[in-house]
Amino acid sequence: MPKVNHPAHVDGDYFVDYEEKVFEDVKAEPGQKALVTFHTVAFEGSIGFVNLLQATRLKRKGFDTSVLLYGPGVTLGVQRGFPTLGNEAFPGHLNFNNQIKKFMGEGGKVYACRFALQALYGHGEPSLIEGIRPINPLDVMDLVLLHKRDNAVIIDTWTL
Questions:
Q1: Taking the C-alpha atoms of 103, 104, 108 and 110 in order, what is their torsion angle to the nearest 10 degrees?
Q2: What are the backbone angles phi and psi of residue 121, rounded to the nearest 5°?
Q3: How far is residue 71's CA from residue 69's CA, in Å, rounded to a whole number?
Q4: What is the SS3 assignment for the chain?
Q5: Cα–Cα distance, 51 to 54 (Å, whole number)
Q6: Nearest-angstrom CA–CA distance, 62 and 45
Q7: Neighbouring C-beta atoms of residue 45, cutoff 10 Å
Q8: Which of 30, 103, 105, 134 is most buried, judging by how many CB atoms fall within 10 Å of its CB?
Q9: How many CB atoms are located within 10 Å of the residue 32 CB?
Q10: Segment 6-11 mean pLDDT
Q11: Mean pLDDT along residues 2-24
């Protein structure tokens, strides 16, 4: 049996060179937009949270950034908590809520499809995190088309 002769890793060890940046740090030019769409269920994987972080990073790079929650994506924008709204039942329970609030606090815009909110998931507009703008289901495609017309950066999050 092979013998391992390396000491155990300890807190503070580095495994990779996290400081090396290969590409230039791109910043938005005046008027550039970005759209991140979410057609994913909250807590069914990391993609929803990761792309909320990406939306925040795009905003910080100077892009006029919007988030679109449609289909199961509206589940990212509903208020949570247990035993009452706003209380974190376990570490990370309010990750989506907190990241959306941070994004909007930095000037990002969040839109949620009213059809998905009510017809698919049984929520009303009062269930949304404050600041999220509910939109008509016919606006979902138009929001995407407006961003395409404006040559925006678009990140689509599509998982089930």
A1: 100
A2: -120, 0
A3: 7
A4: CCCCCCCCCCCCCCCCCCCCCCCCCCCCCCCCEEEEEEECCCCCCCHHHHHHHHHHHHHHCCCEEEEEECHHHHHHCECCCCCCCCCCCCCCCCHHHHHHHHHHHCCCEEEEEHHHHHHHCCCCHHHECCCCEEECHHHHHHHHHHHHHCCCEEEEEECC
A5: 5
A6: 28
A7: 13
A8: 103
A9: 17
A10: 91
A11: 91
- For the cut 60, the answer to whether the pLDDT of residue 47 exceeds it is yes
How far, in Å, CA of 40 to CA of 49, rounded?
Answer: 10
* Measured distance CA(148)–CA(152) in Å, rounded: 6
Q: State the Cα–Cα distance between residues 153 and 141, nearest whole angstrom.
A: 16
145 burial type by CB count under 10 A (0-12 exposed, 13-18 middle, 19+ buried) = exposed
How confident is residue 160, by pLDDT bands cut at 50, 70 and 90?
very low
Q: In whole angstroms, give the CA distance from residue 107 to residue 127.
A: 21
Distance in angstroms between the alpha carbons of the first and the last residue of the chain: 44
| Model pTM score | 0.90
Residue-wise pLDDT for 83-112, tens only, equals 999 999 999 999 999 999 999 999 999 999
